[in-house]
Amino acid sequence: VQLQASGGGLVQPGGSLRLSCAVSGLSLNYYAIGWVRQAPGKEREGVSCMGTSDGSEYYADSVKGRFTISRDNVKNTVYLQMNSLQPEDTAVYYCVTDLTCRATITAKGSSVSAKYAYWGQGTQVTVSS
Question: How far apart are CA 58 and CA 48, in angstroms?
Answer without folding.
Answer: 5
